Amino acid sequence: MPFEEQGAAPGNKTIKKVDMQTAALMTRQRTSSYWIALIFVAILGAIQVYFFNITFHGPDQIRDLEIARRLIHHQEWPLNGPPLFGERFNLPPGFYYLLALPLLVRDTEAAIFITFGALFALSVWYLLRVIHAQLGSRCALAYAVLAFPVFASFYTHSAWNPALVMTLSNVVLGLFISLAQQHRHDGLLLPLAAFLLVQIHPSAAPLLLGLGAYALLNYQVLLNRRTLASLLLIAGMTAVWGSQSGAVSKLLSPAPASAATASGHGWLSNLLDMDKWRDVFLMPYSAIESIQPAISGLGALTAFHLTLMLGGVLLGIVFSAKERTLRWILLTTVLWFIVSMAFLSQGAFWHLDVVHPWLAVLAAHGLARASEKASLSTGHFNALAATSLVLVVVAHLNLYLQFEKRGKYDLLLASLFFPKLEPLEYKIPGYTFKYLHAMRDGLLSRGICQDQVIGLDPMVMGNAVNRTLDAPCPSPATTGPVSQTLYFIANDQDALRFDFTKGLQAMTTVGASAIYAVRNTGALVNGKAENNVLSNKKMDYMTFLPARLAEGLTLTLPPAPETIVRVALRCGRDYPIEQQAHWKVQGAEYKKPLTTAHARYLGSNYYDLEWTLTMPASQAYGATISSTLGPLDCDVSAITRPITAH
Questions:
Q1: CB of 165 closer than 8 Å to CB of 197
Q2: What's the distance, Cα to Cα, between the start and end of the chain in Å?
Q3: 180-195 pLDDT per residue, tens
Q4: What is the pTM of this model?
Q5: What is the pLDDT of residues 430-439, one digit of tens each?
Q6: The pairing of beta strand 291-292 with beta strand 408-412
Q7: What is the DSSP string of 157-225?
Q8: Alpha carbons 646 and 631: distance in angstroms, whole number
Q9: Residue 150 in 3-state DSSP?
Q10: Average pLDDT score over residue span 8-34
């Protein structure tokens, strides 16, 4: 019996007093749960904003920023969103207009990163408030533990369309919970938020099945004037976009031969692919495990976080049977997985971002109800949740601080897709925005242009960002004589394998990379006084074709008693170029065997080669190193350094 109804008899006054104290205590404990959740959400949000420029930056982000800037400065209004399905289809352009808004305040990438990071934290806070009001403070605290996935949170403040997926999914879910829990019918904002979410990324489209089923079974929602107004507005905007953008005709046009002949699987085969189901549920952990070199302790913290999520989801499935709103969240999530897994023969880590909030709420409800069934006191529950949140904060700080320190980590491509891609050795170079611009600014401030920059590291970096951050060089007519100094860039592990940087003092460091000033010895690449040979032809918007070396590769070296030759190659296919037998050395002798390294980034093969050669002291002419493989499709970056006897 509620305490307000106690005390009808004089003997019940004591009972009334005790019950009021209990109710006050329960209220205070619920409030403490909410405040703990709010404090940690604020901390995790502050981490994102503080490390605003520690986020992935690559060709997609650069392309989208360029479109947003043209909108701001030249009033070029985009009619389509980012390209999909091999650039055969586009969604409406809502993402580009959202991307341009921060640029109106300040035209810098930092404005976007800070805005998007703050919006993500605010969306988590909004959903937290809704959960607290509708499902209880214990459920809200459990949600706070799961709201910030370790890997995905790293790019929710980047200039990339998946960055806004979790943000808007939080909003859509919050609006849906309020609508369903309060039995309201005025769905004005929910359709608009869902419409915008689908424009951000098509992975949100399967959510519309669950939302649509709810609207059909609760038809009063569809009959509401506000809902009708919202739906009519969406239909009108879609019709205008479809007629003006040309997206529909582009989709209906015949597919390119490569796309038409691409192998695929039937929807049932996709749905029953157990390897894919395993990989998709392990994806939050696999993404962290893909980072090379591994970040100490981060895998264990992510595994703990994922275990909480998956265990909570299983409990949520059990306990959702008695909760109407949770049944709808479960149904919407299940429909999303069925459609997504059946439609996609291959998925990527960012496809899961849209459903993460739904899984987190389902898991939070399961953990909260299980703790109540186990008679776990609010104080103990708060302590366990706060401990878990501390570990989540530690995981985020560890990830951000290590990326800030190094600037670049490699990501195993296979581990970022479900089911895992083959072959396993291909990687994605993961550069932070801060590192890329610190490197570019470091070169520009010293008057160093791209033709003077040598090495495998700048070659990988240039292709990873579509060469858009290359330091421009003056035109040949104004350059005068060839530069007397070249600048070799290598990471902090280079000296463990190669000898080129041994004995050299780094001019400066950026992250885990060092820049070395080296005298230009005048070596020739295929008879020309150049150190870099690159192609300017593109395969697509994010990939340059490698240079065509019709006569192979020949390096002409100046005379020196002992010299080190370092060559970086980016090739369109795998050549046996690491084998010493495929190189012909004339006018010099090997002091030590050819040292090599081979890496596969995205669709290219990168080779790092080093010769240590000796020549007779009396020899007046130089030496040559020639490949014997015939024509090569490879970019080249070469440098030589005579070894001075001490």
A1: yes
A2: 93
A3: 998 887 788 999 999 9
A4: 0.89
A5: 999 999 999 9
A6: antiparallel
A7: TSSSGGGGHHHHHHHHHHHHHHHHHTT----SHHHHHHHHHHHH-GGGTTHHHHHHHHHHHTTHHHHSH
A8: 41
A9: coil
A10: 48
